[in-house]
Amino acid sequence: MNDRPTIATLLTQGLFHHQQGDFKNAMERYTAVLRTDPDNTDALYYVAAIACQEGQYKQGIDLARRALARSPQARMHNLIGKALERQGDHLEAVKAFDAAIALDPNFAEAHGNRASILVAAGLYEEALAGFDRALALDPKAAADWINRGALLQDMGRFEEAIASYERAIALHPEAVPAHFNRADAMRAAGRPQDALAAYEHLLGLVPGLPAAHFGRAVALNDLGRLEDALSAVDRALAAKADLAPAHRLRGRLLEALGRSEEAQASFARATELMESGAAG
Q: Which of 2, 59, 164, 237 has the fewest CB atoms lying closer than 10 Å?
């Protein structure tokens, strides 16, 4: 009686370990498949995915292209695109995402990945259309809601950005980037009281986050609560002493409070950090 696992069983086991982050056991199953069937496209794709997850992008691209030669699939082009992006080859990455979308126009992840590269290229309107397409296909993609929000924020469309972050938060209530960006967008939109509440909510999730303490200090300053702002900026600096913007804000607060000598020391420290390149 032959008790050797079938290829289907090995792939199922490999994928289970892969999804648990146990790459070692996943690779054992995938390589066992490839010993029996060297051109198995599923095994090649999963090995390529692990290579990319471990930063071996060239190996991942080579394996995905080998799988593509056997069976053209959108997911393989998408994987290649992500690896090329990590290598800094944005033009070729866009071509790979285009190839994925050509094979499967409803591949939401490829639309979102392509849009992210277009943001970096400054093609904001085209990128926004890409995020909108991705989210129409997969409204539960929290990362795309966050990225869409960041794009809208860069475009000065703060209320729309806030709405995007809130969609991400509804999906993942502990998504720190969504909470932080939302608070920043509220401050930029001229809503310091709302921003303050948002920073404080974030600090409830991540009490030691320096950027959130700093954002809270800025919101308090906007509200004219200078002593409270000074306390908040000191909390930021206690968490991250080389945060140059916090030293600058501290200097301005101390100056406004009539503590000129201390203010000059804070300004000098901010300048020192900026000149050293350790600006936080």
A: 2
